[in-house]
Amino acid sequence: MSSEPSKSPPKSVTARALAVLAAFDVEHPLLTLSQLARRSGLPVATVYRLAGELEDGGFLDRNSSGRYGLGVRLWEMGVLTPIHGRLRETALPFLLNLQYDCRETVQLAVCDGAAAIYIEKLTSEMSVPVESRIGARIPLHATGIGKALLAFRPEAFTEVILAMPLKRFSPETITDRRVLTRQLAQIRQQGYAQSHQEYRLGSTSIAAPVLVGGTVKAAIGIISYSLREDLDQFAPALLHAAKGLAKRLAETEGTAYPSLSGLDQE
């Protein structure tokens, strides 16, 4: 679990309101007033006033126990983002077809700074760990989907990531930069990445980049929590889904909502 943020108190009203909203994350979807003040770095009195105004505007919601959560107005705004309206909705038919083929959990992620963030997930019949849920951030160097993103990012970006301390999440995590560099080269050659218990013991995955005009826009991954050794058999279907999504995104460049454009799905 992540530690409480440590930051200087924001000065402007806008910055303070944003600090209150930014206090929420995947691990902290509901917060008491005191928790909200501590995580935002603001006085309780200030947070009480801002939270009331944000609640009135629909940006925060308060449940019967007095805990705050993000409100429906933020959800309405969130679905207008390119990641939701353009990428996520466009990807869904390809993800559904892929999951039908493999019967495992299928995920879609994008690179965000030094991490990957899940923006869609179709689960198998097995329960999945909290680390894999939509909105969760995962390391680029220790996951299949993260490596698929990292391998096809610009060389300068990859060098920056490899220069950072590579955290060990399990005994299988690759933290040797030379080994990881060779692995990224292999991923670029074969077109997809693999990961075996590197982030979480008991899991294995394969993932492929979504390349539009040579730029990696996202990655699609298949992950199994039963230590399957035969996920490679789904590599052709995975690559087909990634290439199909890339083609669809290229065809609908400049369209905010490709899923509503009337073009036939492949």
What does this protein look like?
By secondary structure, this protein is an alpha+beta fold. 40% of the residues lie in helices and 18% in strands. It has helices spanning 13-22, 33-40, 44-56, 72-78, 82-102, 144-151, 155-163, 177-190, 235-251, and strands at residues 60-62, 68-70, 105-112, 115-122, 137-139, 193-196, 204-212, 215-224. Strands 5-4-3-8-7-6 form a 6-stranded antiparallel beta sheet, sandwiched between helices. A two-stranded antiparallel ribbon has the order 1-2. Strand 7 (204-212) and strand 8 (215-224) form a beta hairpin. The longest helix is centred in the middle third of the chain and has 21 residues, at 82-102. It starts with 12 loop residues before the first helix and ends in a 15-residue tail after the last helix. The model is unreliable at 1-6 and 262-266 (pLDDT under 50).
